[in-house]
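User: Fold this one for me? It's Diguanylate cyclase (GGDEF)-like protein.
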Amino acid sequence: RAKADGRGLSRGFEPEMDLALRERRALQQDLATAITRNEMFLHWMPQANTKTGEIVGFEALIRWKHPTRGVVPPVEFIPVAEETAAIVPIGEWVLRTACREAARWVRPGKVAVNLSPVQFQHGDIVALVHSILVETGLPATRLELEITEGVLLDNLTGALQTLRRLKALGVQIAMDDFGTGYSSLSYLQAFPFDRIKIDASFIRTLSTSPQAKAIVRAVVALGASLDMPITAEGVETAEQRAFLAELNCEEIQGYLIGRPSPVVSFESPFAKQRMRAAG
Ligand code: C2E
Ligand code: MG
Ligand code: MG
Ligand code: MG
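Assistant: Here's what I get for Diguanylate cyclase (GGDEF)-like protein.
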């Protein structure tokens, strides 16, 4: 019946699902060879001291230049890479490349690298981080690993043990996208993070939402009493920076300081302004 009089319907719907699936399969296949074909590269996003504007480090953000699709953003391909565990070699490439480049920076700034939960489930992430530090000569204290609560979701005990072993290497552990998950507070109780990154969604709505203001104020206060410095993500305006500076939020990251870029520059937009004003 469907074939007889529902041609348009069944053909219109099913092939579309087929297409989405085929599309994902194609991405998965291309991801498997992306590293060996040299299609991945890094962008760097500056992180600054909120009050002085001094650039203190950079977050490594992966980019994929697909041979026919152009640059595919990480929000599109990281989830696909996580499905097939292709994220494991990709994440290893990011870590090695970021540490190697950071070891050659003109200043010993912090280098922040995002880790996928899947990297905690496959292989020995502690051994990998250790060997990359040895291989690149980057001092462990300069490396900050950004994790989301996804790392802690299944097998909390195992994840906490891994995080403790990473900390024992001397690297810093930051909780990324704080406030967007389900049980962020219980994780703060369970593990001594070296830093909390407030998610950009709270910063974006600061000027229009009294709730966002209250939440940011509370998270910064919480960080202070837990001895966990705060980085605010997604800072785009001078007003947002002023508000965060007043709260003593330690660091900011966002378009106000600098956009992701293939090159690293320790020159701060604020320091420049101050020099111009003085001269
Ligand atoms: P994230 O770790 O929370 O990184 C911050 C994202 O917000 C970046 O997007 C950055 O460009 C963007 N952003 C920061 N400040 C601003 C701002 O002021 N305005 C606007 N409009 N955007 C801002 P990006 O590079 O597209 O990365 C998105 C997400 O992809 C990252 O979120 C992270 O979860 C993931 N990702 C990126 N690189 C890697 C990687 O090497 N490994 C893993 N596992 N995930 C990665
Ligand atoms: Mg991050
Ligand atoms: Mg984030
Ligand atoms: Mg994120």
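One thing worth pointing out: The radius of gyration is 21 Å.
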